[in-house]
């Protein structure tokens, strides 16, 4: 819906970021280049929809997975258009832009799909090593080593897709969850590589006496809190915590 007699304004990405629906600001969203004012919608109260989507951004990719059709946005006034030279798709290589246009699936899903692998592998390394210590069954320890290798291989993939998703869907806007993930992800990978090299170099490290055994075990156990925090902060971006 376009307001009669209203001059269509061109919005930049920076202007949209400030239209969050908070502190008296309008709640604006973008869908396929159209800037839509959803301030009057009870479903966008406070600039947040379904405790998941936030005003001030582009919903073109998000709405593909919504339980309703995009035409629900036609109930609200279109007050402008997104400046084409500012849009993420104009800034990306043409081949990539064409790929995303043909397969919008890749706009939202690569990182959520790949990030689960290093998370699961991280927990598995700890679980199988503990099983080995309690049972002395060597196959558990070997399985832990294989899981560690899987985590090392998939972590860079998750990091790369994470940066891509952050750039494409969040306009590379800094935030507390993103800052923590950027800080912790390389630490997780470095510790995993260190554990892997140590285990290959000293196959019986878990049974070695003294300090080396304890240091190695502490490094293994450290994977749990690191992975937990990475997963937690990632989840808060997709499913924000509702504030009472």
Keywords:
244 residues, alpha+beta, Flavocytochrome B2, Chain A, domain 1, 2 domains, 4-stranded mixed sheet
Polypeptide structure, described:
- The model has no long low-confidence stretch (mean pLDDT 80).
- A hairpin with a 3-residue loop joins strand 4 (48-49) and strand 5 (53-54).
- The chain folds into two domains: 9-92, Roll (Flavocytochrome B2, Chain A, domain 1); 109-238.
- The longest helix is centred in the middle third of the chain and has 33 residues, at 138-170.
- 55% of the residues lie in helices and 8% in strands.
- It has helices spanning 13-17, 88-91, 94-102, 105-108, 110-114, 116-135, 138-170, 176-201, 211-238; strands at residues 9-11, 28-31, 34-37, 48-49, 53-54, 78-82.
- The strands form two sheets. Strands 1-6-3-2 form a four-stranded mixed β-sheet. Strands 4-5 form a two-stranded antiparallel ribbon.
- The chain starts with 8 loop residues before the first strand and ends in a 6-residue tail after the last helix.
- It is of the alpha+beta class and 244 residues long.
* Strands, total number: 6
How many structural domains can be distinguished in the coordinates? 2
> How much of the polypeptide forms β-strand, as a percent range?
5-15%
Rough outline: elongated
Low-confidence segments, given as residue ranges, are none
User: How far from one another are the termini?
Assistant: 33 Å
Secondary structure category: alpha+beta
Rg result: 23 Å
Largest sheet properties? 4 strands, mixed
Helix content: 40-55%
Average pLDDT value?
80
Number of alpha- plus pi-helical segments: 9
> How do the strands of the widest beta sheet line up side by side?
1-6-3-2
Question: What's the order of the H and E elements?
Answer: EHEEEEEHHHHHHHH
């Amino acid at each position: 819906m376009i307001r009669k007699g209203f001059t269509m304004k061109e919005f930049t990405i920076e202007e949209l970021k400030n239209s969050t629906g908070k502190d008296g600001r309008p709640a604006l969203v973008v869908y396929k280049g159209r800037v839509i004012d959803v301030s009057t919608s009870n479903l966008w109260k406070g600039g947040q929809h379904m405790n998941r989507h936030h005003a001030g951004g582009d919903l073109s990719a998000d709405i593909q997975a919504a339980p309703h059709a995009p035409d629900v946005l036609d109930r609200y006034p279109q007050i402008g258009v997104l400046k084409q030279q500012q849009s993420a798709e104009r800034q990306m290589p043409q081949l990539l832009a064409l790929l995303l246009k043909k397969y919008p699936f890749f706009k939202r899903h690569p990182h959520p799909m790949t990030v689960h692998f290093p998370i699961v592998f991280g927990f598995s390394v700890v679980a199988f090593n503990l099983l080995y210590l309690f049972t002395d069954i060597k196959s558990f320890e070997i399985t832990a080593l294989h899981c560690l290798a899987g985590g090392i291989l998939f972590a860079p993939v998750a990091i790369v897709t994470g940066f891509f998703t952050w750039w494409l869907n969040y306009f590379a806007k800094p935030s507390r969850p993103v800052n923590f993930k950027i800080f912790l992800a390389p630490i997780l990978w470095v510790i995993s590589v260190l554990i892997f090299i140590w285990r290959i170099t000293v196959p019986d490290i878990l049974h070695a006496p003294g300090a080396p055994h304890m240091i190695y075990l502490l490094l293994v156990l450290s994977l749990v809190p690191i992975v937990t925090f990475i997963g937690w902060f990632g989840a808060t971006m997709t499913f924000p915590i509702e504030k009472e």
